[in-house]
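dumping the sequnces here before i forget
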Amino acid sequence: MNYTTLSKKQLSALKAELELKYQQFQARGLKLDMSRGKPGADQLDLSMGMLDVLSSKDSLVSSDGMDLRNYGGLDGIPEAKKLMADLMGVDPSEVIMGGNSSLNLMYDMVARAYTLGVYGGEPWCKTEKPKFLCPVPGYDRHFAITEQFGIQMINIPTDENGPDMEMVEDLVKDPTVKGIWCVPMYANPSGIVYSDEVVERLARLDAAADNFRIFYDNAYIVHHLYDDAPKQLNLLKAAKKAGKAHQVYMFTSTSKISFAGSGISAFAANAENIAYIKKQMSIQTISHDKINQMRHVLFFKNADGIRAHMKKHAAILRPKFEMVAGMLDKNLGGKGIGSWNTPRGGYFISFNGLPGTAARTVALCKEAGVVLTGAGAAFPYGKDPEDKNIRIAPSYPPVSELEVAAELFCICAELAAVEKLLKE
Amino acid sequence: MNYTTLSKKQLSALKAELELKYQQFQARGLKLDMSRGKPGADQLDLSMGMLDVLSSKDSLVSSDGMDLRNYGGLDGIPEAKKLMADLMGVDPSEVIMGGNSSLNLMYDMVARAYTLGVYGGEPWCKTEKPKFLCPVPGYDRHFAITEQFGIQMINIPTDENGPDMEMVEDLVKDPTVKGIWCVPMYANPSGIVYSDEVVERLARLDAAADNFRIFYDNAYIVHHLYDDAPKQLNLLKAAKKAGKAHQVYMFTSTSKISFAGSGISAFAANAENIAYIKKQMSIQTISHDKINQMRHVLFFKNADGIRAHMKKHAAILRPKFEMVAGMLDKNLGGKGIGSWNTPRGGYFISFNGLPGTAARTVALCKEAGVVLTGAGAAFPYGKDPEDKNIRIAPSYPPVSELEVAAELFCICAELAAVEKLLKE
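..and the predicted 3d for all of it:
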């Protein structure tokens, strides 16, 4: 039954029915949170062993003889650089270890590029109106960074292959365009995996600005829900072949592998960028936490160790994602009032309702005790031009709570859609 | 025997004698480092117990119910804020926890003030030629930060009470003056402790710029070498009384208490600054490492625990400082070619040779295998206008090595002085 074909009378009856269901949910006094991509407690339990890998009986020395307890090691200990390099498919010499989050690392890279400049290019602040390309829907915290620096953001539509590359290729001819935010693997929130063609075209981008950079946030690089993990072209390698390696900044972290907030992060780029950034960084810090880097190395051993660990995460997350996707299929399928992805990895389900219903759906959920990410959050300036996208984060609540929240979500999305159709 | 009264002939004889001694040292092929204020391995051993305070058997929850392993807690866990607040003599609500170093925290505060602005004031970058006051000799890494942002630095002479406050009070009438770097307790490198009068005058500073801030780096807040720790007026409290609390930014860290690079850092300021900065920070990070904050809380328990721990550091450091100071007294005392402090805490001995001899002394030491901090490092732009100041860092080498290094240092300082006097 496609709701868009219903008469006003039918819609009114449906509305009354949905309102009744909604009121029943309201009466339950729920207090559930599907707003952020936080790991659940059971996922965090998987890494508790990391707290035991170093004790007062151990000697804390890196393979190059550094006392991990003392100053030094600006770009990280060799073992950690190797671990993260293997994960990112680059050489350890192309890695700088960051602190406890890649968000901070990305923020600092934007801040440096904006104020101090990048290898071979002047500071972005020297451009009167610097701009950034933002594939949408995207990661709200990315957009918040560029917004804080007053960088104008341009929405780039995405499809199942990634951002609209024709538009990107056209826009980078403008020298005031300084960068693009990308989440190439299980994009936040759409869950899409950039196709090799898209990665190839990103690698070859012929930007007019010599201080243009691709901020390639590989936050979900090993965050597969299923065993058939997609293979993806390596951007830095492809960009090297295209003679455009200087345009690539890659990021990742263990925030959703070990402990969120107590993980390690890593940055990868070509030799010139690395040397330039290390020099800039040396004024900001002496080193990040080398002991914590060693904890990760000892606990995971190598990149395969991380991949094996991620299968345990997947076993916990998969039922949650399948439950929500199943609920959406069952309750909203075929009604013509929304579409959603069935992600193969990452942390989110992206729901697109009827235009003009997202804010209302989120408000209805909130009034019944279920917090979702704010409508529009996945767009620059928090403004979804169609007011239709909602990011669902199924990772944190236990399955039982999630089921209730997802059921309520469906009712709210349906109610908002019916209200909307009645007004048309 | 005061060298400045000697004849050229006497000086020449002395020179030959010193050169012989110097050559003997050179022949030993030394490789010693007195360049940075690094803790020694035995000092780091004092904190090894910190690696045992948390294990996989513990529940990692803060007093306000936060799962330390997950996202959240932008300004730190309540227990850590209390610990650092007690150390700094402020209220926990006046504290924001930083990452693994106060250097990074200070850098970020400068970066934010420069690009984004401070509470009640526009970004420093809006001022055509922003300036900073730099008590000298001072901390090279402070000066490197302001230099990186292109902030013009003005040398402020210091005496045994702290910076020349008359000069400071006069200069802050200029609205392009945006801040001052201070190390109030055992200043780096002079070791002086700001007098209460100086702190009081800092607290009352009537700066013309509404975005003026005192960067008060209490790096050595509990780093006493002797039991008679000085009491010092609390800047934030005094500034509150004077109605100038908004001008105060205070910093400290456990870098030289627990592990350098794996410690925790803290920032303190009044409520308005804290609220404003937390909002700015929320774009940069979700939180710093809460697990490591808890490790520090469990290991030290409270501020008194830290103070007791610092007595163990002092027991290791005191003989090193006394050895170097004793060597300087014995070998250079009464010769009229230099003066030095006998610090009661901190990490450095500041040596002032004859004008025009510091670079030569450092070069002589280096050629004989002893690395010192570069001459001029304690001044903005690395330029000691008189070329006389050398920072000696006695903490890292074992006493036996230190003795050799200090003996060589005396010969080099003497030789450089004699060379200089011969040219006059």
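Chain B has two domains: 3-43+307-423, 62-301.
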